[in-house]
Structure formats: C-alpha cells, structure tokens
Amino acid sequence: MTRCHARDLSVVLYGATGFTGRLVAHYLAARGGTGRIGLAGRCRQKLEAVAAETAGVGWEPDVLVAEADDHAALSALAARTRVVLSTAGPYALCGTPLVAACLAAGTDYVDINGEVPWMRSLVDRFDAEAARADVRIVPSCGYSVPSDLGTLATVQAMQRRFGEDVRSVQSFMHFNGRLSGGTMATGILLDEATDAVQAERRDPFLLGGAPPGGARPEDADPCGASYEAALDAWCAPFWMSAIDSRVVRRSHQLLREVQHAATGEAASGEVRGHGYGLDFGFRERALARDEAVARGLAAPMAEVERRKRLIARGKLPAPGQGPSAEVRARSWFRLFLLGEAESGRRLVTSVEPSP
Fold it and tell me: Which partner from 241, 259, 293, 331 sits 20 to 30 angstroms from 131, CA to CA?
C-alpha cells in the first residue's frame, strides 16, 4: 500500500519483532487509540508476522524496514512520525543513529534502555541541540519510570504537607518477575565493557544531580543485605538500582536547572534552584521476606561466562525470549518510597500498576 510520506504516523515502534517489542505491539493494538502506528525493524517478514498476529478491528499498522545503521532508512522512518518508541537494544551498539535521525527530523524519541553510560553519551552529544529544536529525547522509560515518577510524587506530597524541601527519598521495590533475554544480553555486554565504562557505571552522579559537596557514603549503590527499621523489613540490593538512581538524580538535576534559570543566583552566589532539596539524596533497594532471603539476593551475580553457558543450555533466556504469558500474569510489583524532609519529618508513599 502506497502512502504519502508526510508525517502520517502517530508512533513508530522500532524493534517490534523482539520480545518486548511484540508485547508493546499487542498493547498498541489493543489501546493505541485512533492514531496510525508503524512497526519498524530489520526484517520485513518478521514485522509482517507481528502485524498479522496483532490484527484486530481498526488496527492496520504500516511496516517500515530499517537497519539500525541505515541512515537513509532511519531518516525516512523518523520523518513520517511524531514519536519513535525504540525497544531495540543493546542501545550502545545500535541506538545512536536512530536518535540522531529523530533529532534531525524534529521527531520525539522514547526508549526503554538501561545503559547509563550510553545515556551519558546522548546527553553530551544531543542535549543542547534537542533543547534548541524543542525535540524531546526521553531514554529509560521502562522499569525506571515507577522510581522516577514515584520520587517526584513523594517530593511534591511532602512539599505540600510540610512546606519544606526534601532531604532524601529511599525506594524499596517489592516484586515478583523474571528478566527477558534482551535484558540479560545487555547486562553481559555492560559487564564485558572497558574499564572506562565500568568507572562510569560506578559513578552515582554520571547523569547529574550531585549535592553541592559532592558524593557522600550514602550515595553509593547498596551492596549487601540490611535491615530498615523504619519499615521493619530486611532489604537487599535491587538489580535496577544502579540505573533507577541515576535517572532519579537526573530528574532532580533538570528541575534544579529549570529553577536556576528562572531565579538566577543570589548576591552571595548561592544557587536558588534546589530541585528536590539542596542536599537531596536517593537510594533504592529491594524488600526481602526475611534476613536469609535478603542475604541470598545480595549474593554476587554469576560470572559472565557462566551466564553465557546457562543461556546456551536454555537455563537463562536468550535475546528474543522472555517469561511466558502465564509467568507474566503472575508477576507483580509494588514500590514503597520513604521520604524525609529537612526537619526530619517522614512520609511513606507507594506505587503499583493499575488493574
């Protein structure tokens, strides 16, 4: 079917044939509204299969074929839509050309990546130009969203209730679920990266948000089991915390920059924009049933070569694989956030999926 190559699509889903991409395609087919949708990726046959398996009343997605390094195809794709949603990773290997194409076309971009060093490269390369062009580049809109928006909601609730800035927010994830093969592959890629990348991964403020005095001991990523008296619960390191914490701190940094631009500097040179709070800190851990579970969760992850062998033997999911529909139906999460105001007053909030 021939269509006008104007901006005739509302959303293009890039990576639609992957495990997560297919789930997103089904979601858009069921709840995508009246806008036209495009399914994009490298293989036309696989894309047409996804379009067919999601077929329904009013759902007739366009199929767009574009290799991750095909500048012309990515540019044509970006020029046709208002928003590109990418589920195609690892993003450090194949994501940058698509972001560049979106920026050149004036198209907003969203993805679900968890590769913090790559996000840093996006900020360095594209942030200023995107701001001038009024193009929104919003990475890491997957499992980091509950932590990011939950922190914002907690801070706003505390500011309304207490009328003061927030000293810290602690996030506690209670969950039951399994990883996809794409996430597993990305973790292996990051663990095999250069020493320079490993140093970036360890930087708690790689995406910004550092307090005036620099990093503090409480800003380090949790590394062992611990007891949280405020919740009367045992906690363990959460595998997403090294991603979520950077995203939350960047949101704090961006709000601080907006406030700074609006108010300028005081005569003493003190920056008036405090974001969530002048010395705001954020930590994230997982809730555990008891001390034994917490210590088990805190055990080091298997070495890369062992993970590769488990994938080859089918014990861990390979790229394109993930939890079954039955397992996903039994999966759940609830996030608790403990905020502390400058005065020491506290507030607990929670985030969970709607039914």
Answer: 241
Average of per-residue pLDDT values in the chain? 92
pLDDT in tens, 241-287: 999 999 999 999 999 998 888 776 543 334 446 899 999 999 999 99
Inside any domain, residue 177? yes
End-of-domain residue from the set 105, 123, 138: 138
Instruction: Please check whether residue 4 lies inside any domain of the structure.
Output: no
Domain CATH for 38: 3.40.50.720
Query: Cis omega (within 30 of 0) on the bond before 237?
Result: no
> What pLDDT, on a 0 to 100 scale, did the predictor assign at position 265?
52
| Same domain? 108 vs 40 | yes
Per residue in 280-308, pLDDT (tens digit) is: 999 999 999 999 999 999 999 999 999 99
Provide the number of structural domains found in the chain: 2
Distance CA 341, CA 110 (A): 32
Whether residues 129 and 164 share a domain: the answer is: no
| First CA to last CA distance, the chain | 38
Average pLDDT in the 131-145 region?
96
Tell me, yes or no, whether 129 and 151 share the same domain: no
Tell me how many degrees the CA angle 245-228-151 measures, rounded to the nearest 5.
30
Q: How confident is the model at residue 57 (pLDDT cuts 50, 70, 90)?
A: low
C-alpha of 344 from chain center: 30
Chain centroid, CA 281 distance in Å: 19
Alpha helices in the chain (DSSP H): 19-31, 44-53, 71-79, 91-94, 96-105, 116-133, 145-162, 181-191, 195-202, 241-263, 291-297, 304-312, 325-330
Residues 228, 151 share a domain: yes
Q: Is the pTM of this model over 0.90?
A: yes
Q: Give pLDDT, residue 31.
A: 85
Contacts of 172 by beta carbon, 8 Å cutoff, 6+ apart: 228, 231, 233, 235, 284, 285, 286, 287, 335, 336, 337, 338
Do 269 and 159 have their domain in common?
yes
For residue 346, what is the enclosing H or E element? strand 346-351
Q: For residue 67, give its domain range.
A: 9-138
